[in-house]
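Email to the structure team, subject: Isopentenyl-diphosphate delta-isomerase model.

Hi all, the expression group asked for a predicted structure before they design truncation constructs. Nothing fancy, just the tokens so they can compare against earlier work. One-line instruction: predict Isopentenyl-diphosphate delta-isomerase, return tokens.
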Amino acid sequence: MLKDKNLDIARKQDHIEINLTKNVESTLKSGFESIQFIHNALPEINYDSVNTTTTFLGKSLQAPILISSMTGGTTKARDINYRLAQVAQKAGIAMGLGSMRVLLTEPDTIKTFAVRHIAPDIPLLANIGAVQLNYGVTPKECQYLVDAIKADALILHLNVLQELTQPEGNRNWEKLLPKIREVVNYLSIPVIVKEVGYGLSKKVAESLIDAGVKVLDIAGSGGTSWSQVEAYRATNSLQNRIASSFINWGIPTLDSLKMVREVSKDITIITSGGLKSGIDGAKAIRIGANIFGLAGQFLKAADTSESLLSEEIQLIIEQLKITMLCTGSHTLKDLAKAEIRL
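Reply from the structure team: attached below.
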């Protein structure tokens, strides 16, 4: 494994290849399979008038969808991000970038993250691990990452389990909340705090909201298990066994969504983690999400071709619209009140 300044790039290469070629799904379910919409056989709505538009970070979205943060820093990541940005711009949906920590030590990697020229109109999210604030990253450097890609918000991701199962992971997670508060107060744009696949609890959500965070991405369990990704990267049997033992760890996405929405009716919630379709996304909206995110299936499609990625996103949008019509929902506000059976 490469060391020092090249370690971040090597890790990113590993992460892309493992996610594309290995089964890294959590053994837990997201929970949305337990929800069923009550079918409306007489919706009295024209399909062409179904309205999926919303606003996010002050910008209009044609559908409440986020291409969740995935990658950056490598040549392959650049190609993937360019395709993601092109399709996001055409579809009118939001996009997050993968962790940009490497940009602080390898300025040349900016070309793998800079997609604003491709997607001038969409909400674009910069991204760095929150734990890096305990390892020297400053609020000023966070602002630099935002400015570098002309982002609309900065994601601080919480990936404690991934770090602890990573061969070179960070271990110091103490006194991090005050540093998050500092970044929130320093930046000129909103801070989004995001889990990476294990969910946000009620207690954590309360702490983050108290720190001034206005947007939470709950990213519950049911999708990619990053401890399983790290199990494939393990350099010895012990590391592999430790990482593999957490395959079913986390708060299922549905449970996390309910917990966080209970904390605040006003907080903007991005729901991700194990969502597979526009139907799942519709369920998330119904339970309290503002927008929903997907990553894995978009990554695999983007690795193949722009046309396949475009088809995948159109599939999600059409599934959402059909669900809305079949529940008698003309708008997303209507969908949030649709009849369901738990």
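The first helix runs from residue 7 to 21. The radius of gyration is 19 Å. Ping us if the truncation boundaries need rechecking.
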